[in-house]
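Entry type: protein chain
Record version: 2
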Amino acid sequence: MKQTKTKKARTSIIGSRKKRPVTEMNITSLIDILTILLVFLIKNVSLDTTNLLPSQKMEMPYSIATDELVKEGKVIPIQIYFDEILYGPDLTPIGTPDAFINDDEIRNATLAAMQHDTEQMLYNNPESPRCILIQADMGIPCRYITRVISVAGVAGFNHIYFSTLHKPGEISELRRL
């Protein structure tokens, strides 16, 4: 008899539990996880800008440095073409763009010439900015221009300006200037 009472007692305890209706659902942790997931996805989306091409309708500006600035020594020009780079007021050839990037001797010689020019500019007028004007053909890849910028920065040029050289088809006329 004792066994039956304990079984009844157990069943009565289990059967006496009441189900409570759920009135609230805590979604704070769900929102936290979704926020972290969203930030992770936004941060890891890569937009490869090297694959983006300029619009066919985009026209690049055409400009050339005035001779007075170069003659007065206020700016040092460097012209970058597909087949050569010309440096200084007298447009001295320093090599091809590929050689400028790959050959340390050419790059170091150009750096030495640039450092000499910045020292000369400081000697002539210590308060004037040391300016270099990078003139490039419209189709020159950016890696050549970027390397010229880094060398010019190391040489001491604190103002770097850019311009395009010509309209398409006028290469030979501008090189003679």
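Comment: The beta strands are 75-80, 85-87, 92-95, 131-136, 159-164.
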